[in-house]
Specification:
By secondary structure, this protein is α/β, with parallel strands linked by helices. The protein has a single domain, classed as 3-Layer(aba) Sandwich (Rossmann fold), CATH 3.40.50. The termini are far apart. α2 links the parallel β1 and β2.
């Protein structure tokens, strides 16, 4: 499981423990068959049920079309709060949570390092890191979308009983037809961005080692910085 998603799952489980009653944690994941492994991991941690979105047409989907499919699935799932990892760890786009919030017309807080939900479950206070080392504090009316950052909590390990229970917990499978969507809505056709090509970064030139007495090496270094590197 994506480590940022682990923080989101742990926060959901802690909220379930706080509010007790009929609280339910549902894991929704979009991806190929191997995504089931991540869902089962979350179920072993203590989540109640899972939803797996998988369809051949989803191949090549960008962040926007992934968010569209997730939003379509969530419209049929009751929720008080939606917790996501702040970003994936493959493309690192960090765009799905924001797009999801916009599509569902919900308040949002990204890169959240601390979350406090009011005892009545109607509001939340989110603490997030911003540029320059400063912190931003947001008060949101729930339901809202929260994107988890490292430090939000310490994810628990799945216990052996939890792993055994996870095998029998419900995982619902959804394809595009079940979401009321078509191939034109997702994948390469529905994506806002298209990858034209991949390339390696320019090869770095080998470094130079200057040897000798300090006075001479300093002169040589200045000469190289001026004539070869051209930075002075």
């Amino acid at each position: 499981m994506n480590p940022y998603d682990e923080f989101a799952v742990e926060e959901a489980l802690q909220l379930k423990e706080k509010f007790k009653g009929d609280s339910t944690v549902t894991i929704v994941s979009l991806g190929p068959q191997r995504a089931i492994e991540a869902i089962r991991t979350a179920l072993a941690m203590g989540a109640d049920k899972g939803v797996h979105i998988d369809d051949p047409a989803l191949a090549g989907s960008d962040s926007f079309t992934v968010a569209k499919a997730l939003a379509a699935a969530l419209k049929d799932i009751p929720y008080d709060i939606i917790l996501c990892g702040k970003q994936a760890v493959d493309d690192d786009c960090a765009q799905v949570p924001q797009s999801l919030a916009e599509l569902l017309d919900l308040p949002q807080a990204m890169v959240v390092e601390k979350l406090e939900v009011a005892d009545d479950g109607k509001k939340a206070t989110a603490y997030r890191r911003i540029e320059g080392g400063a912190k931003e504090v947001l008060e949101l009316t729930l339901p809202a979308v929260i994107a988890a950052e490292k430090g939000l909590n310490e994810p628990r390990y799945a216990s052996l009983p939890g792993i055994m229970k996870a095998k029998s917990k419900e995982v619902k499978n959804l394809d595009l037809a079940a979401l009321g969507m078509s191939a034109g809505d997702v994948g390469v056709e529905g994506s806002k961005g298209k990858i034209l090509k991949y390339m390696l970064p320019p090869e770095k030139q080998p470094g130079k080692k200057i040897e000798g007495e300090p006075e001479e090496t300093a002169k040589e270094l200045v000469k190289l910085l001026r004539e070869e590197a051209k930075i002075i």
